[in-house]
């Protein structure tokens, strides 16, 4: 509690934002902690502000409310509440020390000792804290490590990993952003030994969450190669991940979207549904990953591409998922096929040319006597495919004629009763 600060700096801009400023003012003795202090010292944009305070969580919540902030008790058992002012959330956590750890979860007790709280954090540069006036507490040399690109565990690496194996993945997430030079040999050795613990003890959702944060780093390739070297990459992606594929694509400007990066990282033979099951991907993530990697019909450089080819491809992607942009699978295609001309192809695919609209709707079929229900959905699906196969050139009349004739689009017979009642389009 009484440790003097190591330094006094001009307060970084994020401390003056309304929400953090109000939180710090409402809780005398509180400080900004973790990522916001690290990123401000590194001269990077600060995204989320976390604050710690030397009071039990109930006291924190009460004082914040008295100061007029909205308070959500998001994680009271872990000592955390979320304060919101002008739509900006600030997580406020009681100072903690670990009582019992089991490789993932910790039983914690509140403390008033800042050094104890810092000692349970993962890396030296994540263990710094700063008050509203710019006083910096840096118990473990985090600032120097940050400047030198050293990702260093607070304390003994093996002990810290045994407390929480997820930290093995976090090491590489932070390495991707801040690491320079040779990584800490002691840390790598300890991580190698911790890989089985991570697989056995850490929930797949948490693994996926950290993996996403790693993949969205501007250039995660070096970190992924290190992970491969210690056996961690194969442990979390046993379907086979090849950092070289990402390494080839990042210089071409591959976006930072983690799912697109995962789609590129995995060889086309990898089993996406196995990955989705194991890492518990959301339905939307699973759909995106599948469609991003469905590249057989994707345009290729050197094809004599006409406007309708692009339209057909757009329509196909749109029909498969509304969460994938038609240009995105081309990144996967380039990683897979190599060669020149992809940037130009992407530019030609991106322009805002309006997508062709599928010209048949349910009501057109209704007007022809098709009852609403699954059969109608099947007919619409079949017509859409026929339309795509025609490079989106078949018009409504031609499509409705197909609906009438059994066995046209895909060999299945159309249900009976499709007879024109009105002229098409009426
Ligand atoms: P980012 O900007 O990427 O969110 P961050 O430092 O805020 O980085 P978080 O995962 O949001 O990272 O965690 C916030 C802080 O909590 C960390 O800076 C660290 O001090 C502490 N922390 C988080 N997870 C762990 C962990 N598993 N073990 C120890 N400390 C942790
Ligand atoms: Mg954070």
Automatic annotation (TrEMBL):
The keyword Nucleus does not apply. The keyword Translocase does not apply. Residues 184-240 form the tRNA nucleotidyltransferase/poly(A) polymerase RNA and SrmB- binding domain. Residues 403-426 are annotated as: Disordered. Its cofactor is Mg(2+). Keywords: Magnesium, Metal-binding, Nucleotidyltransferase, RNA-binding, Transferase, tRNA processing. Coiled coil: none annotated. Residues 31-152 form the Poly A polymerase head domain. Belongs to the tRNA nucleotidyltransferase/poly(A) polymerase family. This is CCA tRNA nucleotidyltransferase. It comes from Falsiroseomonas oleicola.
